[in-house]
Design a protein that fits this description.
The protein has 75 residues and is mainly α. It has one domain (21-75). It is 72% helix and 0% strand. Helix 3 packs antiparallel against helix 4 (53-69). The radius of gyration is 16 Å and the shape is elongated.
């Protein structure tokens, strides 16, 4: 029982911080390279439990939209 209380209290600061998560600030996409890096970052943060599936999907959609508009995209 004590372990469950410790786990809840350990994640409490993260839950408070999550309400203020600014996707554009945490995942800046400015060019093709940063778009690919933000996809990787989103995948890794999701696997680590830092972001949820909705946040990961937002980042991936943002990156995909940016890459679709990139002038040098592969045909």
């Amino acid at each position: 029982m004590l372990a469950n209380q410790w786990n809840r209290s350990r994640t409490a600061p993260l839950n408070r911080m999550r309400r203020k998560l600014d996707i554009d600030l945490v995942f800046p996409i400015k060019d093709e390279v940063s778009a690919w890096l933000m996809c990787l970052k989103a995948e890794l943060l999701f696997e680590a439990g830092v972001i949820d599936v909705d946040e990961k999907c937002i980042v991936l959609a943002h990156a995909a939209a940016f890459l679709d508009q990139a002038p040098g995209k592969a045909a």
